[in-house]
Every structure is written in C-alpha cells, then in structure tokens.
UniProtKB/TrEMBL annotation:
<dbReference type="InterPro" id="IPR036390">
    <property type="entry name" value="WH_DNA-bd_sf"/>
</dbReference>
<protein>
    <submittedName>
        <fullName>Ferric uptake regulator family</fullName>
    </submittedName>
</protein>
<dbReference type="GO" id="GO:1900376">
    <property type="term" value="P:regulation of secondary metabolite biosynthetic process"/>
</dbReference>
<dbReference type="InterPro" id="IPR036388">
    <property type="entry name" value="WH-like_DNA-bd_sf"/>
</dbReference>
<dbReference type="InterPro" id="IPR002481">
    <property type="entry name" value="FUR"/>
</dbReference>
<dbReference type="GO" id="GO:0045892">
    <property type="term" value="P:negative regulation of DNA-templated transcription"/>
</dbReference>
<dbReference type="Pfam" id="PF01475">
    <property type="entry name" value="FUR"/>
</dbReference>
<dbReference type="GO" id="GO:0000976">
    <property type="term" value="F:transcription cis-regulatory region binding"/>
</dbReference>
<dbReference type="GO" id="GO:0008270">
    <property type="term" value="F:zinc ion binding"/>
</dbReference>
<dbReference type="GO" id="GO:0003700">
    <property type="term" value="F:DNA-binding transcription factor activity"/>
</dbReference>
Length: 141
C-alpha cells in the first residue's frame, strides 16, 4: 500500500472526511519537514489560498496524530506521523544540520528500546521519546 493511502485510510477509518486540502497537505509533507509558512506556500501553489482552512486542517491532522509538530531551534515544523516503532506520531529522533538547515531522521527502534529500558526510567510508563540532535557535516568548512 502506498504510504499516502495509509494516511487517507486512517482519516476515513476515524469517520472523518478526506478533503482535497487534507490530501494536499499529506502529499506536501511526504518526506519533508516543513514550517506552517512553507506548507502555506506549497498549498498556495496548488490553489488553496484560505489561510484559516489551512490552519484548521493542519490542527485537525495534528490532533488526530496524522501529523506531528516538531520544535527545532526556535521553529515549529510539521512531519507525517508513521505508525511503526522507529517513527511514530509520538517518538522521533531528528538531526538538525546547522550548515545546510536540513532535517534528517534516524528511524531505529533499537534506540527507543535502549532508552526505554534505562534504569532511570524504570518506574515510568513512557508516552513518547523525542530527541533533537544539532549537528554539522564533518566535511563542511
């Protein structure tokens, strides 16, 4: 099944309408981490010009855990939430590359397993693990 279809099915399965605006947001966010302004710009290119509608649909997708908000530096980004142990709507590991302003991900369930079994976390039921790593490419001057 196509990854976008997975999200469409999730929205339909919750009894919600799969609007063209929601489809466009999912398409835009596939394999990207974008700010609201960047999402807005991409949607404007597709003819979706109502800022309130964009905001409301984005808020809906976050609330329904189709999209997750990430805070990196002083900026809020949006990312599709994937239902697998390495990258769920709750648990993420992102690397913010300072020299290129690129955001990449580490999708490794072993890391989450290692952290969740740490003795300091023994008495807790973890809801999520979110890690932001700031880095620069070693090859950059």
């Amino acid at each position: 099944m196509d990854i976008k279809e997975k999200y469409y099915d999730k929205i339909r399965g919750m009894g919600h309408r799969l609007t063209n605006n929601r489809i466009a947001m999912i398409e835009i966010l596939e394999n990207q981490h974008l700010t609201f302004k960047e999402i807005q710009k991409e949607l404007f290119k597709r003819g979706y010009n109502n800022v309130a509608s964009i905001y409301n649909n984005l808020e809906f997708l976050v609330k329904e855990k189709v999209v997750v908000e990430l805070y990196i530096g002083n900026r809020k980004y949006y990312d599709l939430a994937m239902d697998n142990p390495g990258h769920s709507n709750e648990s993420h590991i992102h690397i913010s590359l300072k020299d290129t302003e690129e955001i990449t991900e580490i999708n490794d369930p072993d890391i989450f397993e290692f952290i969740s079994k740490h003795p300091k976390l023994e008495g807790y039921d973890l809801e999520y693990i979110r890690i932001i790593i700031g880095a620069k490419n070693k090859d950059a001057n």
